[in-house]
Write a structure and sequence with these properties.
coiled coil; proton-transporting ATPase activity, rotational mechanism; ion transport; two-stranded antiparallel ribbon
Length: 201
């Protein structure tokens, strides 16, 4: 092999070695870039996922807050409506009681209340009071039941009140007290979606 052939052979070996090293460097660089890109992509996707989750939670909180505010407002409106209806109902009830006091059935009721109070008192002294509006019935009831009756100085909307001093007992059959008790214990009863009854204040 002469010198020219040796130089040619050496050149081929050098070029081959350079090509192999260049390919290796390019391959390593490609792998590094791909690895970095994958890591960057994964981090970006994770960040995007976290941002999406935070935004969903923020929207859910806002919706819950809005729902809660609307529910509170609705409950307040329902409460006001219930109070208005309750007031109207008891105004109507008082009107009906006033009308009832003009009927013979009211006189019968007073007789029953007075007789029951006398029976309860037994031998003890009892003071039985009528409402001032019942003054026209005072003599008729006193004679019919052989009982001394007294007109109250204060209206209690009808019915009777009786006091047994010896036992410190008040028998309160006044319409005023019965209305107050009824109002205090009154609850709206609503039909539920399933056909049953649901009590509501």
């Amino acid at each position: 092999m002469n010198t020219e052939e040796k130089l040619k052979h050496f050149k081929e070996i050098c070029e081959s070695d350079v090509r192999i090293r260049a390919e290796k460097l390019l391959s390593e660089q490609r792998e590094t870039l791909e690895s970095r890109f994958a890591a960057h992509r994964e981090a970006a996707l994770h960040h995007q996922s976290m941002q999406l989750q935070l935004e969903e939670e923020r929207i859910a909180r806002e919706q819950n807050k809005e729902y809660s505010l609307k529910l509170t407002e609705l409950r307040r409106e329902i409460g006001e409506l219930r109070r208005e209806l309750k007031d109207q109902l008891f105004v109507e009830l008082r009107d009906r009681l006033a009308n009832f006091m003009e009927t013979p059935a009211y006189l019968t009721l007073l007789k029953k209340q007075i007789s029951a109070a006398k029976e309860f008192a037994g031998e003890d002294e009892i003071r039985i009071y009528l409402d001032p509006a019942d003054e026209p019935l005072l003599k008729k009831l006193s004679l019919a039941l052989s009982t001394e009756l007294t007109l109250s100085r204060y209206s209690f909307l009808g019915g009777t009140r009786a006091v047994i001093p010896a036992k410190n007992i008040l028998i309160d059959n006044s319409f005023e007290t019965k209305l107050e008790d009824a109002r205090a214990s009154f609850r709206f009863t609503l039909e539920s979606e399933h056909g049953g009854e649901a009590q509501d204040e």
